[in-house]
Amino acid sequence: MSTLTYLKSFFKDKDVASVTPTSKFCIRRVCRPIDLSRDQTIVEYGAGAGVFADYLLPRMTPGSRLILFETNELLFEKLREIDDPRVSLFDQSVEFVTDLLGDELIGRTDFIISGIPFSFLDEQSKASVLQQSVDLLKEGGKFLAYQTSGHLKEPLRNAFGNLKTSWEWRNIPPMTIYEAEKR
């Protein structure tokens, strides 16, 4: 998807946090902890136009699942073009992720990838989304996020009790990469 489409979404929708798609460098760094040779259930918050899906799907096993959340209408329409039975789409907010996904995935999700702008959420909503994420993940499952600043460190430590961070400078804007594990 073009940068122009992202720009349109950015100016039309207050919840779109970037004017460009995530770079291949950032995508690879975020996905580094995922063993794509095994069946995985991956949930993505803020899937945008599907750049992570484009990276993951050719590498995922036939028994894997990719569940994408995106509330921006223009970006969601782009996601609807993905023709893969392993993909499920939701155009609802992740503020209700456990209700939307139900008991089938609670405690059974391997990875959550998140690009949603947590800085746009109030503290209660942020804590709720992170707690629901902990609930969704299985033991050893990981929450992988990329954000434009270090503002998510404390909330992730509070929710998960652990955290690793790194930087990806080869993205516009540069991103803080977060990795928290359910233990």
Give keywords.
Phospholipid N-methyltransferase, 183 residues, methyltransferase activity, Rossmann fold, single chain, 23% strand, seven-stranded mixed beta sheet
Please give a structural write-up.
There is one protein chain. This protein is an alpha/beta fold and 183 residues long. It has one domain (23-181): Rossmann fold. Helices cover 32% and strands 23% of the residues. It is built from seven helices and seven strands. The chain has helices at 3-12, 24-31, 51-56, 73-79, 97-101, 123-136, 153-160, and strands spanning 41-45, 65-69, 87-90, 109-114, 137-147, 164-168, 175-181. It has a seven-stranded mixed beta sheet with strand order 3-2-1-4-5-7-6, sandwiched between helices. Helix 6 packs across helix 7 (153-160). The longest helix is centred in the C-terminal third of the chain and has 14 residues, at 123-136. The chain is globular and about 40 Å long. The termini are far apart. Mean pLDDT is 91; it is low at 6-17.
